[in-house]
Design a protein that fits this description.
Layout (H helix, E strand, L loop, with lengths): L1 H17 L5 H13 L5 H36 L3 E5 L17 H9 L3 E8 L8 E7 L6 E8 L4 H4 L6 E5 L21 E5 L2 H4 L7 E10 L4 E17 L14 E5 L1 H7 L12 E8 L5 H14 L6 E5 H43 L2 H9 L4 H42 L9 H27 L3 H6 L3
Parallel strand pairs: 4-9, 6-8
Antiparallel strand pairs: 1-10, 1-11, 2-10, 3-4, 3-7, 5-8, 6-9, 7-8
Length: 465
């Protein structure tokens, strides 16, 4: 009963919304017909609503999955374009590709009018030979978690895709209003790091709470092991960040930690002699908002020229992945549109049957109105409008249900992934539904009413099925 009433209310709204321009008498008769045929039209309504709700739900689900994969790629890349260094040790010299090797990139980025900002990210601390484990632990060594510690430049989040930065806890009062990364380069931040918000519950980390960083080294030659412990505090807890792995959920148990380059140098235990010797992982590039694809291609080509002598470096361009997603999205978009048309056609037979029964059940009413002088065009409009409103309201009800269920999935997925997932409204499906409602409504009602209106008034009064 609730469904029937909701359908009738939606039908009345659509009558006044789409037929406001027609006579009030036509609208009044149409609304009475819709009210009298509610139970008869219920099967048609359910068929259209369920079919389209399922199609919309699948369409929205695919959009969520596509957006989730795309945003995960964006979040992991950290920037639209970056230079990647493998960080392997040179067998001859024992050196690793460091910032010093790529200083030419910084010089180029500063001089390029197309680059708005740039940032550095180091290799994890366990790239140091013999380092086998890095853990965060509370002072009592009761709780611990494995982590990967990286160094990052103070302007990193200005150069990276900042929409993926979600801060759980951060108190900037201790850092004189400096940005999140700049605080790590202050005196207070020299013994602090940025960690994932999961460690608040799993390890007991919190703002200004003291904990330990344990770095384990193993020496197979003499079968020995050393553990270096450093006292740290937490500067901030993050739910997510570009180019790093952070999460408030235990699904991601091993997360990253960020320190300054100077702190990273101290944690290396003297392995690196200066900040310039720290091995590079990513050099992130941020373009100006008005930069075109052709201009980005120029920068990509010039960066490739600068690093062509480095065998263990390459350029990652996020747009390469985007092209593949767009192609797949277009193909599946056509598929969902085709599926919607097929569903509308299959449900049309139910509409045809419903309109046939509704029209022939009102033969006496039609004959009386014809005897009163009501024109044939007036009668045509009543039943064509009725079929149109039935199809449109049923279809819209399905679209609304499908969108509602899909939107709950978007909220759930965004909560667990910590990605800014958008809800993509199925506009193409709505357009197909609207156009199909007009065409199918006309076809379903025009034949039966035309057959009756070709009779005389006397024949109509005597007509029996």
């Amino acid at each position: 009963m609730i469904t029937i009433n909701a359908q009738y209310i939606l039908e009345k709204i659509l009558v006044y919304l789409f037929l406001w321009w027609d006579r009030a008498s036509v609208r009044n008769v149409l609304i009475k017909n819709l009210g009298g045929h509610r139970e008869r039209n219920m099967k048609t309504t359910v068929l259209y609503a369920v079919s389209l709700a399922f199609i919309v739900f699948i369409s929205v689900s695919y959009s969520i999955q596509e957006a989730s994969i795309f945003y995960q790629n964006e979040q992991q890349s950290g920037a639209v374009m970056r230079v990647e260094a493998q960080g392997s040790t040179d067998e001859a010299t024992g050196a690793m590709p460091s910032i010093e090797h790529y200083q030419v990139l910084e010089n180029y980025a500063k001089s390029s009018p197309l680059i708005a900002d740039f940032g550095w990210i180091s290799q994890p601390i366990n790239i140091i030979p013999n380092v086998t484990d890095v853990k965060l632990t509370n002072l009592g060594h009761v709780y611990e978690a494995t982590t990967s510690i990286y160094a990052a430049s103070p302007n990193l989040f200005d150069a990276a895709l900042s929409q993926f930065l979600k801060i759980s806890e951060y108190d900037s009062t201790d850092y004189a209003g400096l940005s999140l990364m700049e605080g790590l380069y202050t005196e207070a931040g020299s013994h602090s790091l940025i960690a994932g918000s999961l460690y608040k519950t799993s390890v007991g980390l919190g703002l200004n709470k003291t904990f330990l960083v344990d770095i384990t080294k193993e020496f197979p030659g003499n079968n020995s092991r050393t553990i270096t412990r450093k006292v740290f505090t937490t500067q901030a807890l993050l739910d997510s960040a570009p180019a790093f792995t952070f999460s408030p959920f235990p699904l991601v148990s091993e997360q990253d930690a960020i320190v300054s380059f100077t702190t990273y140098l101290r944690l290396s235990g003297g392995f690196f002699q200066s900040v310039n010797n720290i091995p590079l992982k990513y050099f992130l590039v941020k373009f100006h908002d008005n930069a075109t694809d052709s201009q980005k291609d120029i920068v990509k080509k010039e960066l490739d020229t600068l690093i062509q002598e480095e065998e263990n470096a390459n350029i990652y361009d996020l747009r390469d992945d985007t092209t593949a997603f767009q192609t797949a999205s277009k193909i599946l978009g056509y598929f969902f549109n085709f599926t919607t048309v097929v569903a509308m056609l299959v449900c049309f037979f139910s509409l045809k049957s419903s309109m046939f029964n509704s029209i022939y059940a009102q033969v006496k009413e039609i004959s009386i109105m014809r005897a009163m002088g009501v024109s044939k065009f007036w009668m045509y409009r009543i039943y064509v409008y009725e079929a149109f409103i039935i199809v449109l309201s049923s279809s819209l009800l399905g679209v609304i249900i499908g969108c509602f269920v899909g939107y709950t999935m978007v909220i759930q997925r965004a909560l667990f992934t910590q990605l800014p997932l958008p809800f993509v409204f199925p506009t193409n499906i709505l357009i197909i539904v609207s156009v199909s409602s007009i065409v199918l409504g006309f076809i379903a009602s025009f034949g039966p009413i035309r057959f009756l209106l070709r009779m005389t008034t006397v024949e109509l009064m005597r007509f029996r099925l």
